[in-house]
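Q&A log
Question type: sequence-to-structure
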Amino acid sequence: MDSLSHLIGSLRLQNAFYTRFEASAPWGHRVMHRGQIKFVLVAGGTCWLRTAALPEPLELQTGDLFLVLDGAAYSVSDRRNSRCIDCRELESLRKSFLIRYGGGGSTSTLVSVALQLAEDDAGTLVGALPPFIHLRIEANRSSSLHALAELLRGEIQEELGSLPIVRRLAEALFISAVRFYVQRSELPKEGLLAAIADPQLRRALRDMHDDLAHPWTVETLAARSGMSRASFAAKFRGKTGSTPLDYLTKQRIVAARSLLREELTIAEIASRVGYESAISFTRAFTRVTRTTPGAYRRQVKQSPAAPSASET
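Response status: OK
Response body:
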């Protein structure tokens, strides 16, 4: 799906922080997640996962991967009901990116990665995904997802120069996991993913994303979808919860936020995202974001802090 490819490809990682846990039974730790996105790969052994997103604890095997997208707390442990300590209490045991702890029994290895996306990406594809995703990539996997997981498993054993490689692998694995989930799962009947899956709406979404600067109207988008104006507008709103032009405006502002990180004038950015003047662009940007383009640019010049170690 072209629209899905665009949304996935537009995700921008600002920071990543990872920890390799080598935990020997009995063990268990609880994560009070503060980052935007977290994914955990079971690189070796087994463990039990507990989170409010699950009705009961879930046993994970080597190769399993789970993603937490809503900041919810979770815990992992060697047994279903093992005692879990706050992961912040383990920081005194940290050696670089490794934390080794537990009672000395059988060992499980977890790779935990906290990802911080650019804030303007949070409400697009990520906002359309469920708050928790579990993938059994060993039993039912795509070749790319499996290959990335294997590369990440291997790289965490290295010390010299591993951080930049792990960061890029983490970003690629996250994107691959999202794609795998969307392709293999039953999609909701409403929301952005439902609209992307709809054969009629898909064309309009693709056209908007491919050329945000085009002077789109509801009439031209409806014609691209092979529908009447009224039918298209009603179906689009029924699936996405917004009108076609409201959706287009939001995507233009998302693109503008990204361009504001570059050395472009406000007028140049306005033209690239479909506004005839800097004034009309500024009005739209301020209406959507509650701040001016100039103020936003000054804000993003300050590099965001990486997630704290205790968040992983």
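Response note: The longest helix spans residues 162-184.
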